[in-house]
Specification:
The protein is mainly alpha-helical and 248 residues long. 76% of the residues lie in helices and 0% in strands. The chain has helices at 2-16, 19-45, 57-60, 62-81, 83-87, 91-95, 101-135, 141-150, 152-166, 172-192, 208-211, 218-244. It is globular and about 60 Å long. The two termini are 25 Å apart.
């Protein structure tokens, strides 16, 4: 366990030491600031005719971040820790440590999921703070917190899929290209083939909508859980198998 934790901390340190992930966090904060303060501008211009203070900024911003920005960061982190390290041969130094390869794999997977969780937390906290500054409170804060937590489930599955794709190539640019194409393809598939939308995990990127509010019957929720679990286990098993026998 100590080897796994040490490897996990090392992989997280690699990501957080990269300036691009700090830049992403800054950009996310700026997007939240612009989105929240635009509500104040609209209210001011309309002289109170249009008021947007009853809109929860953390919830309204979820679609942008959960569907686009955070998935992009997940793909970037996955390519940095997997295909990128095979490309520049730095993975050899990792394999030379007295750590089982499965611990290396799990540590990298957890690091990618952690960077996604950090970015989700930044969006939730910053948008909530700006809401308090502009409106004096956050509408449905409890709902927003649970929504962000629940939406980590499909993001984790996406991370596992992207990591699996990374095991197919040793070039980070090509791995990034493949991950983006597959992700876009899955989203297009669920749009143009509605009968398949319930079978594609990207159709549940806003996972919280199944659980919060009206929700679904327990039987329906159970089938969705099994679907996501099936995707996650499949991506993990295939990804680890390829990683275990991948030559550097």
């Amino acid at each position: 366990m100590s080897g796994l934790l040490a490897n996990y901390r090392n992989e997280c340190a690699k990501l957080m030491s990269s300036k691009k992930y700090i830049v992403f966090i800054i950009i996310e904060i700026l997007i939240c600031a612009v989105a929240v303060f635009s509500k104040l501008i609209v209210t001011s211009i309309s002289k109170g005719t249009w008021t947007m203070n009853n809109i929860s900024s953390p919830i309204s911003l979820m679609t942008l971040f959960v569907q686009a920005i955070v998935p992009f960061i997940i793909m970037l982190a996955s390519c940095d820790l997997f295909a990128g390290e095979f490309q520049d041969k730095t993975i050899r130094a990792v394999f030379m440590r007295p750590t089982a390869r499965y611990k290396v794999f799990v540590g990298k997977v957890l690091a990618v999921i952690t960077i996604a969780a950090v970015n989700m937390a930044v969006v939730l906290i910053s948008s909530s703070i700006f809401d308090i500054i502009v409106s004096g409170s956050v509408v449905n804060l409890g709902y927003a917190v649970w929504a962000y937590i629940l939406d980590m489930v499909p993001l984790a599955v996406l991370a596992l899929m992207t990591i699996m794709i990374n095991q197919l190539v040793k070039n980070s640019t090509f791995a990034m290209f493949l991950a983006i194409i597959v992700y876009i393809g899955l989203n297009v598939l669920e749009i143009y083939f509605s009968n398949l939308s319930g079978l594609v995990f990207t159709g549940y990127m806003q996972w919280h909508k199944l659980w919060l509010g009206a929700g679904l019957p327990i039987s329906a929720l159970f089938s969705k859980i099994l679907l996501m679990l099936g995707y996650g286990l499949t991506f993990t098993a295939v990804g680890y198998y390829l990683f275990r026998f991948k030559e550097c």
